[in-house]
Amino acid sequence: MYKNQNLIEYHLVDVRNNKEPKVDINYLSEKEIEKIRNFHKSFSQYTETPLHRLDNLAKHYGIKNIFLKDESYRFGLNAFKVLGGSYAIGKYLADKLGLDITEVNFEYLKSPEIKKKLGEITFVTATDGNHGRGVAWAASQLGQKSVVYMPRGSSQIRLDNIRKEGAEASIIDGNYDDAVRLSDEMARKHGWVVVQDTAWEGYEDIPTWIMQGYGTLIDEAMEQLALEKVDKPTHVFLQAGVGSFAGAVQGYLTAKFGEDRPITIVVEPDDANCLYRSALRGQIEIVDGDMPTIMAGLACGEPNTISYEILKDYSDGYFSCPDYVAARGMRILASPLKGDPQVKSGESGAVGIGVISLLMERDEYRDLRQEIALNEDSIVLVISTEGDTDPQKYIDIVWDGDCASI
Ligand SMILES: Cc1ncc(COP(=O)(O)O)c(C=O)c1O
Fold first, then answer.
1. What range does the domain containing 270 cover?
2. Which backbone phi and psi does 70 adopt, to 5 degrees?
3. Residue 14: which CATH number?
4. 78 lines ligand 1 (CB under 6 A)
5. Is any atom of ligand 1 closer than 6 Å to the C-beta of 240?
6. End-to-end CA distance of the chain
7. pLDDT tens-digit map of 304-315
8. Phi-psi bin for 210: left (phi > 0), alpha (psi -120 to 50), beta?
9. Is residue 128 among the annotated active site residues?
10. What is the tens place of the pLDDT at every residue in 51-62?
11. Out of 69, 70, 81, 316, which one is annotated catalytic?
12. Which of 203, 219, 248 is the last residue of a domain?
């Protein structure tokens, strides 16, 4: 029912005419996110990631503009995820010191006196790769320890990169959601602190901070768009694993633009389309078992409960995609039309461009592109959330043609 091997499946939701009370998104407002971005700005590694214009691709497809935010430049870690883990750890430590986040900066938290005051803390998490690397990086920068669990099938290079950041990292015999449960159990047993990028009942503070951390990225993008004389995009495609990233961006845009917000589409792999399924059913639905998609960062079967509420109330549609859609996006970005910048985008980063390309090229999506009004007036924003975080896989796909289009 849910899985057509070849086509992008979709479910559009008339959220704008739904007058039911909606979930509060104020904690993701521009004003709140400014504080978080100021904290990120205090890192010596902080620079805004580029916002590329893909003018020739846009012209090719008869779209007004395509903008792509390139998170492969984030703190030298090749993915956006560190924004969440670093802010959550910073906020946790600030709280422990009885200080507001506006009263601390990264250097202060790193200082030997503060480290002494805080003592030794171990942060534990589960990850497909990028989040764990971000948590390991932030913990080691702050002189603290980290333990990271990865699901069965995780790539060796992603494991090695986490270990390089000083974490005790291992691949477990279970899927992503089993790894989340294990980190929770181990935290209880050893008195560690879980820094998980997803929420569940009773575990909501840290994931909320993680989502706020992602806010920095969309805040930068809006500022960069303004410099391009664009007030707001008309369409935003948001790839989702547990949905924290999509929920954070959706919340920010909703707080900023209200009813005039862009059309937002949540994009998932067929193998892990828990938000698509949940939207179809009108309640949270879990995908279990192994999720063999190439989009490793999106291979999560249990939605973030906080984020789910935001997406349910404000997102316009859900797309479930076969793997070749992401692979096509990677190739388009790696081999751009003349005049457009080349972007190294990994499997979970490129699916938005893959979706746009198929929607605009193929006859079978004519109705869908009309339904979401993707046309010559559209200003599209996509976020390439990672670079080649698995370089061999990147080469297999982009150079050797793995995962060919159907
Ligand atoms: C590169 C990349 N993009 C997107 C996502 C999706 O984020 P979320 O799990 O918050 O939906 C992830 C998650 O790990 C990721 O690594």
1. 9-79+206-398
2. -105, 95
3. 3.40.50.1100
4. no
5. yes
6. 20
7. 999 999 999 999
8. alpha
9. yes
10. 999 999 999 999
11. 81
12. 203
